[in-house]
Design brief:
By secondary structure, this protein is α+β, with helices and mostly antiparallel strands. Strand 1 and strand 2 form a beta hairpin. The protein has one domain. Helices cover 29% and strands 34% of the residues. 20% of the residues are buried.
C-alpha cells in the first residue's frame, strides 16, 4: 500500500497509488468526487461481494451532472475511498428509481 492522502476537509482519505490508477482508468481522481457524498439522494449499499477482509460500501450519487459509483471503507476516523467510476446504466436506473420512490 502506498502513501495515504487526507482530503482538504479531512473527511476522506485514500491511497495515492490507487488514486493515480483510478485517474488513468476512469478519468478522474478521488479529490474530484468527494462532493458526491453531499448529494441529498446519495444512496449507500453494503458491498457483500467485496467485504471479505473489511466491510465495504458502495455509494451512488450525482456530482456536476455525472452519476458516480464510489466504493468506500468506513471503519476508520475518515471515509476511505477505494475506487470511483461513472455509474453504469443499471446503477443509473437504481438511483433514479430511488429518487422517484422518495419523492412519490
Amino acid at each position: 500500500m502506498g502513501k495515504t492522502v487526507i482530503s482538504e476537509n479531512r473527511r476522506f482519505e485514500w491511497d495515492e497509488e490507487k488514486n493515480e490508477i483510478n485517474c488513468k482508468k476512469h478519468g478522474f481522481g478521488f479529490e474530484e468526487i468527494t462532493d458526491v457524498f453531499d448529494d441529498p439522494y446519495f444512496l449507500v449499499r453494503y458491498d457483500k461481494n467485496h467485504s471479505v477482509d473489511e466491510e465495504r460500501w458502495n455509494g451512488i450519487g450525482c456530482i456536476n451532472g455525472m452519476l458516480v459509483l464510489v466504493t468506500t471503507f468506513t471503519e476508520r476516523e475518515r471515509i476511505r475511498i477505494i475506487s470511483a467510476q461513472r455509474a453504469d446504466n443499471d446503477l443509473k436506473e437504481v438511483y433514479y428509481d430511488y429518487i422517484k420512490k422518495i419523492n412519490g
